[in-house]
Write a structure and sequence with these properties.
4 helices; three-stranded mixed β-sheet; Carbonic Anhydrase II; binds zinc ion; 13-stranded mixed β-sheet; 34% strand; 238 residues; single chain; alpha+beta
Length: 238
């Protein structure tokens, strides 16, 4: 066993390096979710973190001020990048959503090999997060859950073109019904775990074939943060 002095020195050294950003970058393995607080304190200490488990029985009627209008039906050249954590798609000129009369422009969207939010404890096969940004820096994310079923042509187009720039209409990845969803206030699900993020989790789902799911998970598996404490937050449903 190492003596106390040695252990203390090692701890101080490793935390100094982590804070200096020299030693490591966050990930889902050695520097996984349990360690994210070492990179950004709020990941560990925040009281409004994401994802969460949505208990449908405990949801309340949506406050109409928080209803969202989705205008992502907008074809744009998109850059498809493998960013080390997920496949990220950045539209050159994305659509927008409208919330409280304020516009949030589609900034990027990406996938996780399993859903991060769960609904009554159920984890979906995959999820797409559509990250929208307002001019004042506020963030709203629309989550689309995928269930194994028919092949998804829009998703295939993305999988076939990783690393390239192609025309994509994000609407093609969304389910038919975008008017029913769960809403709550949370955070980014990756460091820096910034809070004040408006989450919209669509109730209707999109389909993904078993083959596509395997392909998606070949790129990225285990890139899901575990569910976080609700801490008395209201979960609204429409
Ligand atoms: Zn995400």
């Amino acid at each position: 066993m190492k003596n106390i002095k040695e252990v203390t020195t090692a701890l101080i050294l490793s935390s100094t390096l982590a804070f200096a950003g020299v030693d490591a970058h966050w990930d889902y393995e050695k520097h996984g979710p349990e360690h994210w607080g070492e990179f950004n304190k709020i990941c560990k200490e925040g009281k409004e973190q994401s994802p969460i488990n949505i208990e449908t029985e405990n949801t309340i009627q949506l406050d109409q001020g928080y209803s969202v209008e989705i205008h992502d039906d907008h074809d744009s050249i998109c850059n498809i990048v493998d960013n080390g954590h997920a496949i990220k798609i950045t539209p050159v000129d994305g659509g927008y959503i409208k919330l409280h009369g304020k516009e949030y422009k589609l900034n990027q969207f990406h996938f996780h090999g399993m859903s991060e939010h769960t609904v009554d404890g159920r984890r979906y096969n995959a999820v797409a997060h559509f990250v929208h940004l307002a001019k004042d820096g506020m963030v709203a994310v629309v989550a689309v859950m995928f269930e194994v079923g028919e092949k998804n042509e829009a998703l295939q187009n993305i999988l076939d073109n990783a690393g390239k720039s192609i025309h994509i209409n994000p609407k093609d990845l969304m389910p038919e019904d975008v008017n029913h969803y769960y809403h709550y206030k949370g955070s980014f699900t990756t460091p820096p775990c910034t809070e004040q993020v408006q989450w919209y989790i669509l109730k209707d789902t999109a389909s993904i074939s078993q083959e596509q799911l395997q392909e998606l998970r070949k790129y990225y598996k285990n890139n899901e943060r575990p569910v976080q404490a609700i801490n008395g937050r209201k979960i609204e449903a429409k």
